[in-house]
Recover the amino acids of this structure.
């Protein structure tokens, strides 16, 4: 379905991003991974994707909080892959703290990585998409793009910002064959959430099992974590002809969390 297309997926060396990268590779898209990995780890991931799915695979370890580094990454994708036909803005980080104690440096990091990086990759990719008359931009948002939780001021602010960015880019690209949408997962048990469980337990003075049962999955009526594979399948659908009419949508995948 996606043969001849290149997908750049940020934050794709594990968790949701890797699930999306593998789902797009399964549809024959060439893949550029992005994340913080050693050369050996990156080489192993590239080899796994290339050999498993028969596609070309690349990697960038660019620091996505640095606009100059992002420019270098986008230049690499343009030179070696002909540009990103599919851009998945997935990289993110979390910190849990009451706002009065929230470290300013962590606020700055979360806004830079979770929100500003998506702005920079998008602004650098969209001209090429317009020239080709086709592009898909998928932003990994969160249920926290639609609702808030305590102790997550920076993350909630960034994800609400991603929802607004998604809608704006969708309007600007609509007549150029570009579709921009956001997937809003509920809780997915990834390394990011694993760290969040520990932080929340400390902040609330409860055990990690109580965090999972009474804090995280309490929000999801299914009482199940969403999986990276499910999100990958959803992202793959958004790149298919069947999703051509979906644009500027903030799409929940949260077990019914925001239906409450």
């Amino acid at each position: 379905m996606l043969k001849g297309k290149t997908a750049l997926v940020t934050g794709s060396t594990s968790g949701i991003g890797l699930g999306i990268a593998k789902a797009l590779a399964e549809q024959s898209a060439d893949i550029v991974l992005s994340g913080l990995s050693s050369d050996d780890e990156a080489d192993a991931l590239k080899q796994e994707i290339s050999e498993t799915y028969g596609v070309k695979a690349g990697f960038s370890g660019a620091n996505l909080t640095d606009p100059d580094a992002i420019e270098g990454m986008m230049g690499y994708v343009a030179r070696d892959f002909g540009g990103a036909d599919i851009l998945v803005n997935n990289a993110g980080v979390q910190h849990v703290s009451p706002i009065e104690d929230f470290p300013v440096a962590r606020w700055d990091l979360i806004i830079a990585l979770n929100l500003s990086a998506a702005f920079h990759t998008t602004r650098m990719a969209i001209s090429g998409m317009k020239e080709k008359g086709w592009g898909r931009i998928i932003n990994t948002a969160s249920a926290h793009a639609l609702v808030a939780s305590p102790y997550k001021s920076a993350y909630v602010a960034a994800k609400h910002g991603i929802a607004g960015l998604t809608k704006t880019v969708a309007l600007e690209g609509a007549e150029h064959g570009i579709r921009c949408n956001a997937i809003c997962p509920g809780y997915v048990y990834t390394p990011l959430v694993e760290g969040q469980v520990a932080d929340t337990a400390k902040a609330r003075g409860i055990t990690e099992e109580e965090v999972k049962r009474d804090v995280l999955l309490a929000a999801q009526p299914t009482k199940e974590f969403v999986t990276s594979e499910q999100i990958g399948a959803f992202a793959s659908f958004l790149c298919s002809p069947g999703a051509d009419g979906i644009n500027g949508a903030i799409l929940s995948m949260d077990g019914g969390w925001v239906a409450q």
User: Anything to note?
Assistant: The longest strand covers residues 178-185. The radius of gyration is 18 Å. DSSP finds eight helices and seven strands in the chain.
